Amino acid sequence: MSTLDTLTTVRVGRDAISLADVVAVARHDARIEITPDALAAMAESRAVIDALAADPEPHYGVSTGFGALATTFIDRDRRAQLQLSLVRSHAAGSGPEVEREVVRALALLRLSTLLTGRTGARPVVAETYAAILNAGITPIVHEYGSLGCSGDLAPLSHVALAVIGEGPVRDAAGTPMNARHALAAADITPLQLEEKEGLALINGTDGMLGQLALALADLEVLVSTADVTAAMSVEALLGSDSPFAADLQALRPHPGIAAAAENMRRVLAGSLIVASHQTPECTRVQDAYSLRCAPQVSGAVRDTLTHARTVAERELAAAVDNPVVTIDGRVESNGSFHGAPVAYALDFLAIAVADLASMSERRIDRMLDPARSHGLPPFLAHEVGVDSGLMIAQYTAAGVVSEMKRLAAPATVDSIPSSAMQEDHVSMGWHAARKLRTAVDGLSRVLGIELMTASRALALRAPLEPSPATGAAAATLATGAVPGPDRFLSPDIDEAVDAVRTGTVLRAVEDRIGTLHHA
After folding, report:
1. Structural domain containing residue 509
2. One of 60, 129, 289, 344 is an active-site residue; which one?
3. Does 60 participate in catalysis according to the annotation?
4. Average pLDDT over residues 115-128
5. N or C, which end of the chain is more exposed by having fewer CB within 10 Å?
6. Could you give the residue ranges of the DSSP H alpha helices within 135-288?
7. Which of 158, 185, 204 corresponds to the end of one domain?
8. Rounded average pLDDT over 203-225
């Protein structure tokens, strides 16, 4: 199993790396150390490929063309050119540049598969991938080009192109340059590919899996933060905490719901605002669904994350290539490159994330509506009629949620055949991953606006005091929580979104009441 020492070194070998390892290398530039046993396994399987390369009979990926050209035999003196042509022709991406952390994640995951010893690539291939990652060199990969089957071909090909010293990259400082210059500056020798190696570098689900790993890390923070902002809204709207009682949640034993409800109970504990209306004089029987059912939605998102994490961990333990060198030395074609297992999880998460944001937006709107806010001024405005308060902040949240709902439409139900109908069903998993990244960003923005709105509403409930936890959450905002005359609102929104996205809100709450259940 991989080890991670203070986010500085990740050991990558024959066993599965962890989701934390992926994030450490992709996002925090942790250095990679390859285990010796993995290099030995690569050398062992390479001997199998070398034997097949000498065989006059054709073997797919070793002495044949690819895809629809799989029946074409390639003479030995042309096979190096075959691998080079494969990488060059498949590096056919187009569109905007993909984020650095995504490129690093997919390169790391391809390295991890190489080190299983099942691809037949030489040890030097893995060593070169590790060297490029450690040097901070990032191949330029484009938004479009992958159909998620055979794996993320174009994105992985752009990385492979850089490894052989061709194509554009960015160095550790982010400066764009030719790959050969970047490799030379880092004292890295470009690879000269041999039989099977071009195929081994581009045939995998690494792009979609890397983005799933990064999304899981982000959502672990965001979903727990959603419990905090939901509790703040319940408090601000004079709602009740009684629906979150443990015995009520036990009647419907979903673990995610139980965790979310407990988080909300703990965040609301000690609230003088909640206590102020728990009297016989209070005539309200039930809160609106967006308040009362918050744990059911957040909890279902948590359970969806658990499923997606299980899929990701299984994929991290996989050797995804075609053909593969089996443990007993056979070289077999297979369908493991098909992205469906990861793609479904990505689509599922986009649905869950959109619904969580949708409920958050409904609470924002409720706090701004004097007909439903139980005594708060319209739009939380300072001078009603002159000031608009947070009216348009809700518009912003609504616009984001609307976009997230469109992104919740699954990518995986679409399939456009390719490669002269040899690849007649594809997963579109890369597209599922790209839209999930946008959805995760959207969730952070909606939760930030809820944080800002609820913080300002709680301030308007003075002299009643909020709970210690919600007070700590509101205190993370320097300006957004402060009622007053209208001002330029975008900076306040950005401040709140940043507090959510960076985990500042969650840390502030946990510093006051201890660790919450994380998603």
Report:
1. 211-415+422-513
2. 60
3. yes
4. 97
5. N
6. 153-163, 179-185, 197-202, 206-236, 246-250, 255-268, 272-276
7. 204
8. 97
